[in-house]
Write a structure and sequence with these properties.
Blueprint lengths: L13 H14 L6 H17 L3 H21 L6 H15 L1 H13 L2 H10 L4 H29 L7 H6 L1 H29 L18 H22 L5
Main location: membrane
Protein name: Cobalt transport protein
Subcellular location: Membrane
């Protein structure tokens, strides 16, 4: 009954997600074989699927499969700069895919209020809380500003494209990036003032409608993460080629 007073949101606590992100960053540098990469990627995909993100998981799986197939296919052709560049981009994208999966999952599944409540529980400084709150709220606003600027410039026959970036770089910078940077600065100031007005830096205990605590899902996933890290590190120390 007590939990019904709170908004549960994601199945996993933000602290669990941040630990998983750190674990993903460690794991991607411990192995280079595509089979190892596929197993690590699958582990994080299963976690995001369990939190309800099935469509994005399908896109990640398609990217991984296509990148492996293309990499294996392109090796049969004579290498030139473009092919080498393509192979490099595919390899980098596939290698960092676990981090991208977890990072995108954190952004999509974490509301600003739950993030602030979690960070308050971690006893972060007030300045850090305001900065993180502004960043979380600023990202969707920047996306909206970008679409508005893009729509306005299309009426003048200018759009953000590779062609315009190479053939009209000055006009593209002037009409797109300068207004965007000005908007970002203004939005950042407004959001900072808004956070202060709401009492984010007030020296009092805060309440939250979000239930911030480790649950069974968090404990299970963290145990799996520690187990996988331990196995991989043991295999590396034992001389296994991953």
């Amino acid at each position: 009954m007590e939990n019904s007073k709170f908004v549960l949101g994601s199945k996993y606590d933000l602290r669990t997600k941040l630990i998983l992100l750190i674990g993903a960053n460690i794991l991607i540098f411990l192995g280079f074989d595509w089979i190892y990469q596929s197993l690590i990627t699958l582990f994080f995909l299963v976690i995001t699927i369990s939190d309800g993100y099935k469509k994005s998981a399908i896109r990640y799986i398609l990217f991984f499969v296509i990148s492996v197939v293309l990499e294996k296919s392109l090796t049969y052709f004579s290498m030139n700069f473009l092919l080498n560049l393509t192979l490099f981009i595919l390899a980098i994208g596939r290698k960092f895919l676990p981090c991208i999966i977890v990072g995108k999952w954190i952004l999509n599944s974490t509301s600003v209020s739950s993030a602030v409540a979690t960070l308050q529980k971690l006893k972060l400084s007030k300045d850090s809380l305001i900065m993180i709150s502004v960043i979380f709220r600023c990202l969707p606003t920047i996306k909206d500003e970008w679409s508005h600027i893009n729509m306005a410039m299309k009426t003048r026959g200018i759009s953000v494209s590779l062609y315009n970036l190479f053939h009209r770089p000055a006009a593209t910078m002037e009409y797109f990036f300068v207004p965007l940077f000005v908007s970002v600065i203004e939005i950042g100031d407004e959001l900072s003032q808004s956070a202060i007005i709401r009492g984010l830096d007030a020296p009092v205990n805060k309440t939250s409608r979000h239930l911030i605590k480790f649950r069974k899902n968090d404990i299970g996933v963290l145990i799996l993460m520690i187990l996988i890290l331990s196995i991989v590190i043991f295999m590396k120390v034992s001389g296994w080629d991953l």
